[in-house]
Amino acid sequence: MASMGTELIRVSYHELVKATDGFSSANLIGVGSFGSVYKGVMEWDGEKIVAIKILNLQQQGASRTFIAECEALRSIRHRNLVKIITACSSVDFRGNDFKALVLEFMENGSLEQWLHPEVNERCPMRNLNLEQRVSIAIDVASALDYLHHHSPVPIVHCDLKPSNILLDDDMTAHVSDFGQAKFLSGSTDSFSISASLVAIKGSVGYIAPEYGLGSEVSTQGDVYSYGILLLEMFTGKRPIDETFNESLDLHRFVKMAFPTQIMNIVDPQLIQKEEYEIINDMQQRCTKEDRITECLISVINIGLQCSNKLPKERMHTGEIVKKMIAVREILGRV
Prior knowledge:
Layout: E1 3-4, E2 7-8, H1 13-19, E3 28-32, E4 35-43, E5 47-55, H2 62-74, E6 84-91, E7 97-104, H3 111-115, H4 130-149, E8 155-156, E9 165-167, E10 173-175, E11 182-183, E12 190-191, H5 195-198, E13 217-218, H6 219-235, H7 250-257, H8 268-275, H9 282-306, H10 317-332
Antiparallel strand pairs: 1-2, 3-4, 4-5, 5-7, 6-7, 8-11, 9-10, 12-13
Helix pairs in contact: 4-6, 4-10, 6-9, 9-10
């Protein structure tokens, strides 16, 4: 159970049923491996819109992820982390165990929906401009830096990917889904865990390669996932893209183009967005294009360093934040 403000909020199964109109499909906003997420309206001092994550307890490991999320989110507070409001552990109307998390609602959905929108989605076509992508990247790096080095207990997220990054009404990014999170003990940056457990952590394409070899969970595993995420955000390609052959992945694809051919592989939507503004003065246009190219090369370079196959060669989260802020400052002068 978590608190909202200073008072502890208790919520029942029946309240959640009412808040979601009986877990109506119209309120379903996401489905994951361990459950479904609904938009709900709770009657707390008026009406409050929330996200309600219902755990699928038939799925092996679901109860463990519920406990992990409660423990992780109970002690951490950061502007770029999704806040847990409360939790519900009860029984449903059939007498079956029922577990749910009540989280703050994110108006603009997930980064996944913005990077790879479904053609048949009811909402209009959405696109993120360069400044928005850089700001989101800073938000995510700031969240990781807090989790790894500034939270009461160091935490490794273990499942960083676009669908676990949510955007609020101001397009500020919040890292969510701590069901796979691991606590680090003492002052170390890693701890030992069995290879069989590590092998199932994370998501294909984002999981650090050393985990598949039975290596220990570490903060550098999250940095790898961040690097892949960064490359995806600025190329528009998933880590395992249908255009890649067996010997090619996103890191290799980008590295082959870096730095001279970078503009050939960045997300076409991103280039189109920056071309909307017509600049008549040729010198001013060249200066703007040069700075945009400089920014993209800097961001891609960070992504490549973070997704290095060797953990010791990856960047520290604090350094990532500083370099990404420097990129944003260059953009501010464009």
